[in-house]
């Protein structure tokens, strides 16, 4: 099975004023449940939670990529869907392509849709 790098915003990096009904503890629990579901489904997934600073996020992703070979990267909706994170998303795509040639991408819309996103490519 392919080794997957799952990239998403760390719960402490999110402005919750834009997400009524969501807070850091709730999102942390959802991410942990999603990670447990990945393991239970047999996926070989490595989590990579990042902040919103593109330079720091790139360093974090490069560190994770140095730990092994990844065939697939899943980038979460929090990174992709917020206009203020466009530069962050571009940087992640470019560092992944440059560092892991041939890597494929999939995208979720929430921690609960990660298995569906991975299943489209694994």
Unreliable stretches (pLDDT < 50, length at least 5) are none
Query: How many strands?
Result: 4
Which structural category do the helix and sheet elements fall into? alpha/beta
How is the main sheet built? 4 strands, parallel
What is the residue-mean pLDDT, rounded to a whole number?
A: 94
Distance between the termini: 7 Å
Question: What's the helix and strand layout?
Answer:
Elements: E1 3-9, H1 24-40, E2 44-50, H2 54-65, E3 72-75, H3 77-80, H4 86-99, E4 104-107, H5 114-119
Parallel strand pairs: 1-2, 1-3, 3-4
How would you portray this structure in words?
- The protein has 122 residues and is α/β, with parallel strands linked by helices.
- It contains five helices and four strands, in the order βαβαβααβα.
- The chain has helices at 24-40, 54-65, 77-80, 86-99, 114-119, and strands at 3-9, 44-50, 72-75, 104-107.
- The chain is globular.
In short:
With 122 residues, this protein is α/β, with parallel strands linked by helices. Helices cover 43% and strands 18% of the residues. Helix 1 links the parallel strand 1 and strand 2.
Q: Characteristics of this structure?
A:
single chain, about 120 residues, alpha/beta, 4-stranded parallel beta sheet, 5 helices, about 45% helix
């Amino acid at each position: 099975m392919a080794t997957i790098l799952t990239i998403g915003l760390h719960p402490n990096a999110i402005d919750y004023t834009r997400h009524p009904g969501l807070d850091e503890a709730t999102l942390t629990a959802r991410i942990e449940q999603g990670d447990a579901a990945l393991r239970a489904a047999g996926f070989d997934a490595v989590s990579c939670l990042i902040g919103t600073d593109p330079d720091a996020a790139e360093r974090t992703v490069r560190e994770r990529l140095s730990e092994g070979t990844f065939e697939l990267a899943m980038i979460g909706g929090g990174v992709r869907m917020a206009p203020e994170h466009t530069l962050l998303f571009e940087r992640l795509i470019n560092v992944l392509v440059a560092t892991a040639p041939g890597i494929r991408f999939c995208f979720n819309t929430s921690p609960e849709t990660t298995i569906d996103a991975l299943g489209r490519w694994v």
